[in-house]
Amino acid sequence: MPTVTDVVFCIDYTSSIMSYFNQIRTMILAICTMALTNQNGVRISIIKFQSHGDDWATRVYGFTQDLNAINQMLTNENPDGVSPDGYEAVEFNTIFDISGDALREALNVQWRLNNNNDLIFNEKLVILITDGAPNGLFTPLNGADPWIISNEFHRENITLVVVGVAESINECDDFYCALAQNTGGEYIPLVNAEDILQNVIQGVINEETTFHQCFRHVMMEEIEENSSFKYSYMKDRVIGMINECRTMDDIRKLFFNHRLSTY
Fold this sequence. Notes:
By secondary structure, the chain is of the alpha/beta class. The protein has one domain (3-262): von Willebrand factor, type A domain (Rossmann fold, 3-Layer(aba) Sandwich), CATH 3.40.50. The chain has ten helices and seven strands. The protein has helices at residues 21-36, 67-75, 99-107, 146-155, 173-181, 190-207, 211-216, 220-224, 231-244, 248-262; strands at 3-12, 42-49, 58-64, 87-90, 121-130, 158-164, 187-189. Strands 4-3-2-1-5-6-7 form a seven-stranded mixed β-sheet, with helices on both faces. It is globular, with a radius of gyration of 18 Å. Pfam families: VWA (PF00092).
């Protein structure tokens, strides 16, 4: 059965991540170039999000197959209003990390639907790139609940990958691991993300398989290589979150109890 693929990049655009942004931009462009070259069935969307009281909160760029347009989306650091890129600014009044709101925007983009009559299968992937804890993990929730959004992804057959940037992510990499695995995806440190994601997306495009199937074949050693991420240290907590938690309130209690037990 032929496969068409929609990929959405949700990119943390706060000041703390900017020192890594050239690396992030290079990774995204390499993945998009591989995915779009000679492939008419692939579309890419970009969502940028900020936090901590910045002037804008999320910017949503519609699906495109134009590499030049994607490059412009990633280069344009401070757009105002609606530009020729085709983004739409969505304003929030918040001082918290809003990756949950960005994931809600990703849930609501114009995904292609499966059409059984045409025998075409649509694969959907969201790649969240961030360096910090989400709203609702260490503070009361103020905005969209990323755990509930993750469950919605699962119901809509949208696979989530979280790319962790910098050492600051270590305080919550187990949460992001659970968030991604809850949808059939994975948490991947930035240092390994480009190669793994290129291989997975290429597998979906060329082998007519699913993202869930491809991620099941990614070895944890590949994900952990050259990073401080160690899945064996957190495996029980990840499984506990997936099996026991329904909202960020449940997740926050689990984190609180874990920290008490380690003191």
